[in-house]
């Protein structure tokens, strides 16, 4: 699992990610904070699948743009560099990937998509995309499609939401897997690989009370076996 970095402190991993992977039958391994390629290769080789977690904003430079928000974007270029290499190597090996929140945004941007840099400025709506605690409580609906709808067996799902950036244009290598009522892409997958799923919400906060969110984590673990 890739760590969430605080540039003023140190690499860290929120416990719910570890707990969710364990509940789904996996054994989490947290990558070190490094852009050293040989070190990253060793960790990728030891991993059966990779989780791209939430965290800091994606640098607009990753998708060929500048900050359009007047300074609201809080990127972490070192993490973008690290994850770009990990994504490239993991896709090359066709190992399973799960993206969560920033993970969806990062995968989309790295594969040629673009992002809304700040939803209140660039895509204002009545949907609450930045909720307050408790994060275990869902705050809006999504409409699943494709593999997610097959997994969920439902036309709508309720999810939590902790983001101010989102997919703007979807990478040509991805297909949508869920949308919110205001038109945002809430999940996507990569049909050319064995398992590359990414969701905008946080199943690691929901899995205890949501069989569908536990099933998402389990689908990733099952693909990694």
Report what the structure shows.
The chain is globular and about 45 Å long. With 225 residues, it is of the alpha+beta class. It is built from 8 helices and 11 strands. The model has no long low-confidence stretch (mean pLDDT 94). The longest helix is centred in the middle third of the chain and has 17 residues, at 77-93. The protein has one domain (4-224): 3-Layer(aba) Sandwich (Rossmann fold). The strands form 3 sheets. A 7-stranded mixed β-sheet has the order 3-4-11-10-9-6-7. The chain has a two-stranded antiparallel sheet with strand order 1-2. Strands 5-8 form a two-stranded antiparallel sheet. A hairpin with a 5-residue loop joins strand 1 and strand 2. The chain starts with a strand and ends with a helix.
Describe how the helices and strands are arranged.
Elements: E1 4-5, E2 11-12, H1 15-23, H2 37-46, E3 50-52, H3 77-93, E4 97-100, H4 102-110, E5 114-116, H5 119-122, E6 140-144, H6 146-152, E7 157-159, E8 166-169, E9 175-179, E10 185-189, E11 196-199, H7 203-206, H8 211-224
Parallel strand pairs: 3-4, 4-11
Antiparallel strand pairs: 1-2, 5-8, 6-7, 6-9, 9-10, 10-11
């Amino acid at each position: 699992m890739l760590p969430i970095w605080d540039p003023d402190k140190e690499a860290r991993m929120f416990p719910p990610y570890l707990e969710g992977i364990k509940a789904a039958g996996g054994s989490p391994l947290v990558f070190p904070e490094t852009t050293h390629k040989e070190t990253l290769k060793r960790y990728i080789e030891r991993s059966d699948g990779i989780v791209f977690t939430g965290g800091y904003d994606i640098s607009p430079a990753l998708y060929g743009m500048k900050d359009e928000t007047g300074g609201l974007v809080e990127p972490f270029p070192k993490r973008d560099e690290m994850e770009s290499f990990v994504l490239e190597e993991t896709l090359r090996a066709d190992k399973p990937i799960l993206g969560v929140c920033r993970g969806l945004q990062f995968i989309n941007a790295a594969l040629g998509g673009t992002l809304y840099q700040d939803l209140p400025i660039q895509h204002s709506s009545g949907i609450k995309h930045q909720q307050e605690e408790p994060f275990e409580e869902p705050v809006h609906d999504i409409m699943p499609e494709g593999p997610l709808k097959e997994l969920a067996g439902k036309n709508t799902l309720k999810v939590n939401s902790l983001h101010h950036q989102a997919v703007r244009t979807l990478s040509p290598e991805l297909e949508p897997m869920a949308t919110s009522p205001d038109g945002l892409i809430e999940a996507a997958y990569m049909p050319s690989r064995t398992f590359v799923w990414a969701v905008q919400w946080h199943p690691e906060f929901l899995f205890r009370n949501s069989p569908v969110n536990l099933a998402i984590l389990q689908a990733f673990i099952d693909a990694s076996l």
